[in-house]
Design a protein that fits this description.
Number of helices: 2
Structural class: alpha+beta
Number of strands: 2
Radius of gyration: 16 Å
Number of domains: 1
Order of helices and strands: HEEH
Oligomer: single chain
Largest sheet: 2 strands, antiparallel
Strand order of the largest sheet: 1-2
Shape: elongated
Length: about 60
């Protein structure tokens, strides 16, 4: 993320993280997305880049 922020080349870059889940403690999606960590500031009128990062669960490693 730091490399991406530097490559954009402006002092107006702000990096925020949004936590979401649809699995809970299960192994299949509930189909309902729950926000687990929200943004700290509004993004109305801002250019936004969304990057998806999937956190690996220990169960994922055991099944491969």
């Amino acid at each position: 993320m730091a490399d991406l922020a530097r490559a954009i080349g402006t002092d107006e870059v702000r990096i925020e993280f949004l936590g979401v889940q649809s699995y809970g403690d299960e192994t299949s999606s509930s189909g309902v997305v729950q926000i687990t960590f929200d943004l700290t500031k509004p993004i109305d009128g801002k250019n936004v880049l969304v990057s998806r990062h999937r956190r690996h669960r220990i169960d994922d490693e055991l099944h491969h």
